[in-house]
Every structure is written in C-alpha cells, then in structure tokens.
Amino acid sequence: MICNGKYLYEVELVTTADILEFTRTAVKCPYDVTLVNGKHRLNAKSFLGVTLAKVSWDNMFVEAERDCYFEFEKFIK
Fold it and tell me: Do the beta carbons of residue 59 and residue 37 sit within 8 Å?
C-alpha cells in the first residue's frame, strides 16, 4: 500500500528470532526503513527498538521510500 508517497505494510513479529531476522533484513536495505504505529515511529534497523515496539504496540507497520514487499514478505500480514 502506498501512503504519502511511501510504502506501508502491516507486519507481525511473533518470536525473538522473527525480530532478529526482521532487523537483519532492514539493515541490508540501502534506504530508510521505519516501524510506524499511529504517531509513533522508530528505526526498523534497531533490534532494541523493534523489540520495544513488539512488546508495547498493538499494530506495527513497516514504512519505506521504496517498495519493500519482497524483502519483508515473510512478516507482512
């Protein structure tokens, strides 16, 4: 889905292994990757930040300047 010129997909991270794989995938992206929940935003390349989001947010969306569907396909709802 495109929102405000950026690609936005809802993601689900169930285990710590999912968080680790998600952040490793985000680090490989040569563009900014952000986790979004309403007005909250954080760097998706940060393991600690993604872990905090998983614990405290009900919904998580990955946002990127380029289409990142295939990179994060495993985690997209």
Answer: yes
Task: Give the ranges where 1-77 is alpha helix by DSSP (H).
Answer: 16-28, 47-56, 69-72
pLDDT in tens, 41-59: 999 999 999 999 999 999 9
Name the residue type at position 76: I
CA atoms within 13 A on the CB side of 55: 7
Q: What distance lies between CA 29 and its chain's CA centroid?
A: 12
Tell me if 25 sits within 8 A of 72, measured CB to CB: yes
Count of Cβ atoms closer than 10 Å to residue 43 Cβ = 14
